[in-house]
Amino acid sequence: MDSKKLLLIYNPNAGRGVIKRSLSDIVEFLCRDGYEVSIYATGKAGDAGGIVAKQGEDYDRIICCGGDGTLNEVTGGIMSLDKRPLCGYIPAGTVNDFAHSFNLPQDIIEAVKTAVNGENYSSDIGDINGKYFDYIAAFGAFTEVSYETPQASKNILGKLAYFFEGVRKLSSIKNYKVKVTIDDEIFEEEVIYGMITNSFSVGGFLSLFDDEVALDDGKLEAFFIKAPRKFGDYQVIINALLSGDVDCGLFHYRHITGMTIECDEPLRWTIDGDFGGEYRMSEIRVHERAVTFVRGASV
Question: Which of 3, 14, 187, 225 is paired with 157 by a 20 to 30 Å CA distance?
Fold first, then answer.
């Protein structure tokens, strides 16, 4: 019987370096489970996607250890393959929105067990101008916080690092005049924030979605916050965000299979927590059930 081949990709700088301290235990468990394990440590941005694109078809399963940005790279590599291996994820980042949606344990060894023995689940993958995203592409208020917050602050403060950096940037919130096309619908609006998601959680805090959200239905969720016109609008927005009221009059919320967003100035996008480029014209589409991840039970 041929041994099962597994590629273990880990980011030694993710989170508080927990993967490095647990690496021996991880490999020992995988070997006991019958896998022939190859290990790859990322050194810089692009490494994870590059190794998957180059060698991914040689493996039955890939396990990614790191934050959501590392997983995004792995997903991009898998999307480039004709023969796509299963993908497990050991979350070791600061927020780990993907882990929330896929019910992945926070304990490292329990997450390894799930990555090997969990439930296979073919998930939709988003695409903005040819760049893939697992769970979110966003622009506007606070979106730069995730990739501009220093790694040292993330390691020490965790989610609070994002909060403090976000508060520091409150005075810089600006309006964007966008033209949005969804099928035959077109609307033009000044907004302070826009996001397209395939997730049940955003930023580790926000769950602003309705009961129709699914991760494998061939649809993404588009959400925009209109620019406040008076001071009281800010409180309305905050209250609606806290209560999960997607029908708030200052929001646009749609289930989409594709859309375009046009703006006179380049929109700076965050993709799965990292900088994702600047575009005046953004074309978003969904690749239905494109990557098979391994998730925890009872999602």
Answer: 225
